[in-house]
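Need residues for this backbone.
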C-alpha cells in the first residue's frame, strides 16, 4: 500500500512522519540516527531507502542509511575525507539522489559521491580554479554554522550536469560531472561590495520546475529570482513579498509558473514577519504573489524556517510541508490553501523532505 513519508532532520536526530495517500492522519516515529544533528534527510523513491547527512562534534561527519523505513540505521563515513590539501571535513550538509548515485555537499566546500548506496564515498570535486575558491574555504570568512556546499541540483535527463550552491558565493554549473564549472549568477543582486561580479551572491535555495528544466527559481539573501534559461541569467521577482529575505522555496510539480517561498524578517531574528506565519505563492512566475495562511498561527508566532525546511509532493493535488526552528511541522493537502500542524515539540528542524512510497 502506498504511503506518504515526510523525513524531518533535526538537531537531535531524524524523525519519520507517515500517512496514507489521503494525508489526513500522521504518525510520528523517532528520533533516529542516535540523536546526531541531522542537516538533511531524504529518501530514494526507487529503492525506498532513507538517508541522513549528519555531523557530531564528538564523532565527526557521516551519512546514515535505513533500508526498513527508518526502523534501523547504519552509519558510513568511509571515504568522506579530503586529501592533504588543507581542507577539513566538518559536516555533510546536503544530499542529492539522482542517476543511480548519491551526491553529498560538504563543509569545507566539496562534493562527494557514492555509487554503492552510501556504503563508501569518493571526492568528486572541490571546484578548484573557480573565482572565490580560496576565500570560501578561509576559516576567517566562515561564520558559525557555515554549511560550505549545502545544495546540489541535478538535471533530470543529463547525469553529468548539475548545479552546486556555495554558501555566500553563488551557483556553479557543471556539464561534465565536475571536471569544469561555470558561475551562474548573472542578474543577481548583492547589497555588499563584490571583488568579482561573477561571484559573491548569497543563494539560499535553488529549485527547478519538474515540467520545464530551463525554469529555475531561487530564494536569495536579497531577493527572489527566476531564470528561464537554466541559470544563465536571472530576473528578480521579489516585488509583492513582505521581505526580500528567506531561506526555503519549492516549485510546483505540475505547473512551471507556480512557486512557493517563506519570507522571513531579514534581521538577526530571522522569523516570520510580525510573528504571523504564512507561505507565499506565485502562479504567474513571480508577477504577483498571494499570502497563504489559513490554519497557520497568526499571532505571537516567531517561527523560522531554514533552507531545506519546505517540501512539496508530486500527487495530483500537491501537498506542502514545512518545519520550523522551534520544532513544528505544518502540512497542506490542497497546494497551500489550508494548513494543519502534524507534529509538535520536535527538536529544532533543519530539513523536511517528502516521498510517496509503494
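Answer:
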Amino acid at each position: 500500500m502506498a504511503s506518504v513519508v515526510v523525513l524531518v532532520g533535526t538537531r537531535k536526530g531524524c524523525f519519520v512522519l507517515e500517512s496514507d495517500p489521503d494525508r489526513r492522519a500522521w504518525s510520528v516515529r523517532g528520533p533516529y540516527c542516535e540523536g546526531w544533528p541531522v542537516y538533511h534527510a531524504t529518501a530514494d523513491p526507487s529503492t525506498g531507502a532513507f538517508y541522513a547527512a549528519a555531523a557530531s562534534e564528538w564523532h565527526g561527519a557521516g551519512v546514515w542509511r535505513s533500508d526498513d523505513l527508518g526502523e534501523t540505521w547504519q552509519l558510513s563515513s568511509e571515504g568522506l575525507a579530503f586529501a592533504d590539501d588543507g581542507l577539513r571535513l566538518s559536516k555533510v550538509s546536503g544530499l542529492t539522489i539522482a542517476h543511480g548515485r548519491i551526491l553529498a555537499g560538504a563543509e569545507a566546500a566539496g562534493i562527494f559521491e557514492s555509487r554503492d548506496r552510501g556504503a563508501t564515498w569518493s571526492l568528486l570535486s572541490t571546484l578548484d580554479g573557480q573565482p572565490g575558491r580560496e576565500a570560501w574555504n578561509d576559516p576567517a570568512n566562515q561564520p558559525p554554522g557555515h554549511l560550505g556546499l549545502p545544495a546540489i541540483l541535478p538535471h533530470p535527463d543529463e547525469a553529468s550536469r548539475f548545479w552546486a550552491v556555495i554558501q555566500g558565493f553563488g551557483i556553479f554549473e557543471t556539464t561534465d560531472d565536475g571536471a569544469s564549472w561555470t558561475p551562474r549568477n548573472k542578474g543577481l543582486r548583492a547589497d555588499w561590495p563584490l571583488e568579482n561580479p561573477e561571484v559573491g551572491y548569497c543563494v539560499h535555495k535553488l529549485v527547478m520546475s519538474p515540467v520545464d528544466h530551463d525554469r529555475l527559481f531561487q530564494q536569495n539573501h536579497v531577493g527572489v529570482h527566476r531564470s528561464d534559461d537554466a541559470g544563465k541569467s536571472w530576473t528578480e521577482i521579489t516585488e509583492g513579498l513582505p521581505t526580500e529575505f528567506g531561506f526555503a522555496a519549492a516549485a510546483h510539480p505540475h505547473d512551471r509558473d507556480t512557486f512557493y517561498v517563506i519570507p522571513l524578517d531579514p534581521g538577526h531574528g530571522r522569523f516570520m514577519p510580525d510573528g504571523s506565519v504564512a507561505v507565499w505563492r506565485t502562479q504567474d512566475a513571480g508577477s504577483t504573489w498571494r499570502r497563504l495562511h489559513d490554519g497557520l498561527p497568526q499571532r505571537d508566532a516567531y517561527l523560522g524556517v531554514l533552507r531545506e525546511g519546505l517540501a512539496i509532493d508530486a500527487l495530483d493535488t500537491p501537498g506542502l510541508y514545512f518545519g520550523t526552528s522551534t520544532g513544528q511541522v505544518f502540512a497542506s493537502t490542497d497546494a497551500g490553501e489550508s494548513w494543519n500542524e502534524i507534529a509538535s515539540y520536535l527538536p529544532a528542524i533543519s530539513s523536511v523532505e517528502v516521498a510517496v512510497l509503494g
